[in-house]
Amino acid sequence: MLSCIRPFVLAAGLLAAGLAQAQSDVQPAVQSKVFAAASTRGELVVGVPYLAPPPVAGAKIRTQEGLDAAITERLGASLKLPVRLVQVPARDAARALAAGDVDLVLADNADGQPQTVAVQATGYAARPKAVIRSDTRLRKPADVQGRSVCMAEAATQAQALAQSWGATVKTYRVPSDALVAVREGECDIGLVDDAVWEPLMRFPEWKKFSSTLAADGARHERVWLVPARDEASRAWLGQEMRAWDRAGAWKAMTTKWARDVAFDVYLDQEVPDCHG
């Protein structure tokens, strides 16, 4: 009996080894299909809704609005590719993808995309949230009519929301400029994403600016747009976004953004704010 079993076990082992070898041979081929043009180019080109102009010579380097830069840099690191950003509004995504101008687009919505464009959720959703001095009586959107509301010029969702309140909208190059204006009394209210509001308010110097308004406006999720024909890249993106969620990537990125912006504000305020 044992003499019969041994050849069978040996054959099974050889078969398993052969399958493992076949899988190891196939895996690189599958991986190579993920963003193949970017791999060939040696650079991942990502479209984003807004791309801040480069700072002029001598200008202060400050943290940009939102997480777009952090998200795209993390994606590039996963692919082991450097990233180049180009400005591509969602309405132009299909054309840019079809022309090969970009490998994928990070958009603020997926509305109106044709069937040639596939949509992959990121898992990051936010809406504007107010930053207000705690000693004011502003508590609901109706209180804001005629007041000054400030945000970064890239924060288009925040601008539209403030306009719906009947507020006077003021935009600044970067979020720290808008928040300095709030701290120094030039603006009644600042607006940032609600996802970064809480980590920002954990800093002691923001305690007296930790009042806010009742939640208003819809939460929007950032989405990836990729060519629908590129099924391998879309499948990989889905796996990557799930891995980010399990790893707590969004919390890490929002916390870092809040810390960086708080430091920007600290650098910009050479003296304590004028309200004491």
Automatic annotation (TrEMBL):
Top-level taxon: Bacteria
A Pfam match: SBP_bac_3
Keywords: Signal
Keyword set includes Signal: yes
Keyword Signal: yes
Signal peptide: 1-22
Residue ranges occupied by any Solute-binding protein family 3/N-terminal domain in the UniProt entry: 43-261
Annotated PANTHER family: AMINO-ACID-BINDING PROTEIN YXEM-RELATED (PTHR35936:SF19), MEMBRANE-BOUND LYTIC MUREIN TRANSGLYCOSYLASE F (PTHR35936)
Descriptive protein name: Solute-binding protein family 3/N-terminal domain-containing protein
